[in-house]
Amino acid sequence: MEGVVSLLDERHTALAEALWAELERACGLHGVAATPFPHFSYQVAERYDRTALGAALNGFASEQPPFVVTTTGLGLFTGPRPVVYLPVVRTAALSRFHQALWQAIAGAGFAVQAYYHPDSWVPHITIGFDDVGAEGAAAIVRRLAERPLNWEIAVESIAFIGETEGRQEIVSRHPLGGPAAEPNA
């Protein structure tokens, strides 16, 4: 799978990676390492037309100002393969950004996952994935339930994470370069 994402800033990348390492050490969970770059996703697809996507991301990013997102608490996507995550607060401004990004990259992705469609998107930073199971999810909650996980993360770019020979890699980064947004916009 490939995706259009925002990578975390340096400080929050280190915090997320420390959480991943702790959960691997304490709970034996390492599935999150399949995509080893802390991020939150805007769109995920089986594959992308990389030329079309790159051009669309360059144009889009150049018109968008940097912004800040906030995480709060822990979340859980249930099912046979549970996912534990840090929820990213979905503000009206973040929803507008996401909708505009989807419009800008329309048609570049093949087999786009519906989970990320603007009507159903739940922005999140994954901290437990693939090998979690019910016991692993419970262990993560026990371990992190009392920790403050309210982060303010500077978003200064969008990126494309692609897959080459079964490995995830950051293919491109596109700095946000538009005029500053009005406060409380």
Protein model, in words:
The protein is α+β, with helices and mostly antiparallel strands. The chain has a single domain, classed as Cyclic phosphodiesterase (Cyclic Phosphodiesterase, Chain: A, Alpha-Beta Complex), CATH 3.90.1140.10. It contains four helices and ten strands, in the order βαβαβββαββαβββ. The chain has helices at residues 10-27, 50-63, 92-104, 133-144; strands spanning 2-7, 39-48, 67-70, 75-77, 83-87, 109-112, 124-128, 152-155, 157-164, 167-175. The chain has a five-stranded antiparallel beta sheet with strand order 6-2-1-9-10, with helices on one face. The protein has a three-stranded antiparallel beta sheet with strand order 4-5-7. The protein is globular.
Summary, kept brief:
With 185 residues, this protein is of the alpha+beta class. The chain has helices spanning 10-27, 50-63, 92-104, 133-144; strands spanning 2-7, 39-48, 67-70, 75-77, 83-87, 109-112, 124-128, 152-155, 157-164, 167-175. The chain has one domain: Cyclic phosphodiesterase (Cyclic Phosphodiesterase, Chain: A, Alpha-Beta Complex).
Topology:
Layout: E1 2-7, H1 10-27, E2 39-48, H2 50-63, E3 67-70, E4 75-77, E5 83-87, H3 92-104, E6 109-112, E7 124-128, H4 133-144, E8 152-155, E9 157-164, E10 167-175
Antiparallel strand pairs: 1-2, 1-9, 2-6, 3-8, 4-5, 5-7, 9-10
Q: How many strands in all?
A: 10
| CATH-derived architecture | Alpha-Beta Complex
Which structural class best describes the helix and strand composition? alpha+beta
Determine Rg (CA atoms, Å).
16 Å
Encode the helix/strand succession as letters. Answer: EHEHEEEHEEHEEE
Mean pLDDT: 89
Q: Any idea of the CATH topology?
A: Cyclic Phosphodiesterase, Chain: A
The domain count comes to 1
The shape, in one word, is: globular
The neighbouring-strand order within the major sheet is 6-2-1-9-10
Q: Report the major sheet.
A: 5 strands, antiparallel
Total number of helices: 4
- Please name the fourth-level CATH homologous superfamily: Cyclic phosphodiesterase
**Briefly, what CATH class?**
Alpha Beta
Helix fraction by DSSP (H/I, runs of at least 4): 25-40%
- Give unreliable regions as ranges: none
**What is the percentage of strand-forming residues?**
25-35%
Distance between the termini: 33 Å
